[in-house]
Amino acid sequence: MRILLSPGKAWATKLDKKHFLIQYLKEKYKVIVVFCGLILCNFFLYFLYDVRMEPVLYTTFLLILFTLPFAFWDMRRIYRKCERLQNIGQKEYPVMPDLWAADTLLEQNYQRVIKGALQAWQDERTRWREINAERDDYYTLWTHQIKTPIYSMDLMLQTGDTTPSKWKAELLQVSRYADMALKYLQLENQYSDLCLEQVKLMSVAH
Fold first, then answer.
1. Residues 86, 119 share a domain
2. How does pLDDT run along the chain (206 residues), one tens digit per residue?
3. Is 165 inside any structural domain?
4. Which domain holds residue 121?
5. Residues 138 and 60 grouped into a single domain
6. Are 163 and 102 found together in one domain?
7. Which residue in 66, 96, 121, 191 is a FRET match for 202, CA 20 to 30 A apart?
8. Which superkingdom does the taxonomy of this entry point to (predicted)?
9. Is there a domain that residue 65 lies in?
10. Same domain for 145 and 102?
């Protein structure tokens, strides 16, 4: 079964029932082997006591009749879980899934791991959104600030003002704003020259 398609398109086909049945039988093969072993033991015991086949067949029929409803119930339960997981996986962005109540300890552990991983992903995504919003605000303000010396130099060109001190002051402003942008990029870069970490004071002193 496919999990994702390109955004805006309908999702892929439903859960393949034939494939699910094969996988279900593979998963439950130990139970099936034990069940068949019990039936064979039943036949063997009746054979040892030289009992007619009618009671053997009748007992086997009752055993199968009693077991089949539970087998179909378990198969339907797992099929619904697989369908629900497929629907969760088809979402364009991962969200905290509304999972069913765990039936086993293994399912509880899986659900805890999944929820923990999704929560960590959402926290990281929120953090990067905040970083991007802060960066956008900073560069928007920086763009408006650097326009001031640029407009001043443009005005001096139009008026023919060639006073060196004025030009030097405006160029100094542009240089300062450029340095501010570079410093901001260095602070964002995880491989910057500045590295902050917690160390033991005694190890540094010695």
1. no
2. 333 333 333 334 467 888 888 888 898 999 999 999 988 888 888 888 877 878 888 888 888 899 999 999 999 988 888 888 787 777 666 566 667 677 778 788 888 888 888 888 888 888 889 988 988 888 888 888 888 888 888 888 888 878 888 888 888 888 888 888 888 887 776 545 556 677 777 666 65
3. yes
4. 96-189
5. no
6. yes
7. 191
8. Bacteria
9. yes
10. yes
What is the DSSP annotation of 15-59?
Answer: --HHHHHHHHHHHTHHHHHHHHHHHHHHHHHHHHTT--HHHHHHH
Q: Which of 32, 65, 90 is the last residue of a domain?
A: 90
Lookup: tokens for 48: 């040892």
Closest CA to 57 of 39, 33, 70: 39
Three-state secondary structure along 90-145? Answer: CCCCCCCCCCCCCCCHHHHHHHHHHHHHHHHHHHHHHHHHHHHHHHHHHHHHHHHH
What single-letter amino acid sits at 135? R
